[in-house]
Amino acid sequence: MSVARHGEAVLSGDLARKVIDPHAYAEWDGLLDTFDAIRTSTPVARVQPDTPGLFDPFWLVTRYDDVMRISKDNAAFLNNPRPVVFSFNQAIEFSRAATGSNMLVDSLVVFDAPVHPKYRKLTQEWFMPRNLARLEDELRALAARTVDRMLEQGGEVDFVKEVSGPYPLRVVMQILGVPPEDEFRMQMLTQQLFGGQDKDLSGSGMDKMTPEQVVHIVAGAVQTFEDYFAALAEERRRNPTGDVASVIANALVDGEPLPPRDMAGYYIIVATAGHDTTSASTAGAMQALARDPAQYARVRADRSLLPGIVEEAIRWTSPVQHFMRTAAEDCELGGQQVKKGDWLMINYVAANHDPAQFAEPRRFDAARSPNRHLAFGAGAHQCLGLHLARLEMRILFEAILDKVAAVEPAGEAKRASSTFVGGLKTLPLRVTPA
Ligand code: HEM
């Protein structure tokens, strides 16, 4: 049993287990109940392991205002040197053994100033709406093909398998210059690297391996990524195309090209951050519409409602469920004394369901205004791809509204078991073509 510091609000036992148990994240209402209970009693709570050494204690932050404050103050709350995602000590040891670092890959999310702004600046412009506008025709064609393929299945479909999974994956692979024939390989490598907590999704069988085998596979996956993207970057240096892969390949930091590990890290963070997240919000939006036929009919008739639906779906699903920060100095937070070096979990699911900020937070309210949610984070690390995510979703739903007259649930939707990026892994629907 870890020893609590004097006067701390400590969370242990069942509530602490639920916060770090991937299976608890498969039960959405139960998860929201847990966060509501914690936010009300101990909005900043120290989470301790029951088994010593299982994980390092951390502060769980559940109030909207506190998550916002931490996100915006990157000098006081750092992304380095502890992992930016909740990790068991064994996973951190695997990472050290495989890569020599606490983090499997160095990327935007693990850098702090002064390195972070230099790397962020390289692609910031590329991800702004002005530049993304030139992707619109391509996205429209891809969205139309994806929806047509779904309708060819006829009647009942799994929306995740047919639409919300493949569409954002192709978008992100396209901007990274990965051809369709390599897409599956990239997805498998990502799963080996991040070892999916949900057995249905990971399919890697890594849960049955010895620690040595896991380290071997993870180290191999990192190397394969580095080699793949080094070759891609070489090609983009010879023939730049204007995609984000070309921007990264030709980028200079302090007058030097990116080292291979950082370059691979840049590609990997875009590939991984841009896929499951957008899938989860897309599936959530469709679930909300399928449950409310009147709302579906309203937005079919009035497309100006679509941006509100997209934004609310992103809040309502909050696919990135948390990130971690490390305190750079002692501070007071929610009545608790946080010490320099302490690890903190900023919980976006809890913050985006804080009734002090959102009236009836569990209700899907397409007209919610203002809707200043934290699903994309805030501050210096705020999601680089937020405009792309919104654009992708808007264009996909335009195609759906054009081509699908009505939609209704056709079975039980299931959520993934994952503490980090979460969302629906199946969404059975009955679709009626227009
Ligand atoms: C609905 C979809 C998405 C959600 C909910 C989401 C959410 C997030 C969150 C919460 C962060 C961390 C913010 C912080 O620490 O303050 C983040 C960072 C990031 N996201 Fe997204 N994201 C989405 C889509 C995308 C897409 C489409 C891309 C790119 C193709 C992308 C690329 C990134 C990158 C590169 C970062 C790291 C930024 C940095 O550390 O400077 N994301 N995202």
What would you say this structure looks like, in words?
The chain is an alpha+beta fold and about 425 residues long. The protein has one domain: Cytochrome P450 (Cytochrome p450), CATH 1.10.630.10. Helices cover about 50% and strands about 10% of the residues. The protein contains 19 helices and 15 strands. It has helices spanning about 15-20, 30-40, 65-70, 90-100, 115-125, 130, 135-155, 160-165, 165-175, 180-195, 200, 210-240, 245-250, 260-275, 275-290, 295-300, 305-315, 350, 385-405; strands at about 10, 45, 60, 75-80, 155-160, 250-255, 255, 320-325, 330-335, 335-340, 345, 405-410, 415, 425, 430-434. The strands form five sheets. A six-stranded mixed beta sheet has the order 1-2-3-11-8-4. Helix 15 crosses helix 17 (about 305-315) and helix 17 packs across helix 19. The longest helix has 28 residues, at about 210-240. The radius of gyration is 21 Å and the shape is globular. The model has no long low-confidence stretch (mean pLDDT about 90). Bound molecules: protoporphyrin IX containing FE. Protoporphyrin IX containing FE binds next to helix 14, helix 15 and helix 19.
